[in-house]
Specification:
Blueprint (H helix, E strand, L loop, with lengths): L2 H9 L3 H23 L2 H18 L9 H42 L5 H8 L3 H11 L5 H8 L3 H19 L15
């Protein structure tokens, strides 16, 4: 049976046809994945995930390319997604680590900033960064706009909205005073 017949039969639910497609392409797929991941274990995992995804998406295979090319496309996309996810997780871990260090630093100096830092830590980077640049480092809106590559109005809006969010989190009044402490933001 040629590849087109196997694909047609696999689309109809013939598990033996899909197993043959799997067998014909698996080792080449794994070798490709080893070359891009530099890890046989990761390559095997991605190959398995690729085959599972191909079963799911077999109806979308249009036959314009070889089946192996389609599998490699799926595998490449899965690898890129996995890499992005790991990078996001790593960035989150680094961010959390820095936040813990800052908390410890403030706590060790008995400063009241702990709550503020925690509230700022809950904001997204696009909101937190302009607030810190403006209120902790004294940059102008125009300078922040240049640093971040966004419009000055966007900077003002993010700072305004972010500070309001922090105030709500810390239960501060409009002047930035906590009703129970002398802390100000």
């Amino acid at each position: 049976m040629d590849e087109k017949d196997l694909i047609a039969n696999a689309r109809k639910g013939d598990q033996m046809a899909f197993a043959m497609l799997f067998q014909q392409n698996y080792s080449i797929l794994v070798k490709y994945l080893i070359k891009i991941t530099f890890s046989p274990d990761t390559a095997e995992d991605l190959a398995q995930e690729t085959m599972a995804k191909s079963i799911e998406k077999l109806a979308s295979y249009n036959g314009k390319s070889k089946f192996l090319t389609w599998l490699i496309t799926i595998a490449t996309n899965l690898y890129i997604d996995q890499t992005r996810k790991k990078k996001r997780e790593q960035n989150w871990k680094i961010s959390e680590q820095h936040l813990r260090k800052m908390k410890w630093s403030f706590e060790s100096r008995n400063e009241d900033w702990n709550d503020c830092i925690e509230a700022l830590g809950k904001l997204s980077d696009e909101i937190r960064v302009p607030i810190i640049l403006k209120h902790y480092y004294g940059y102008s809106y125009e300078e922040i706009s240049t640093i971040m590559g966004i419009a000055e109005g966007t900077v003002k809006s993010r700072i305004h909205n972010g500070i309001n969010t922090v105030r709500k989190e810390l239960k501060l009044d409009e002047k930035g005073k906590n009703r129970t402490t002398s802390f100000t933001i």
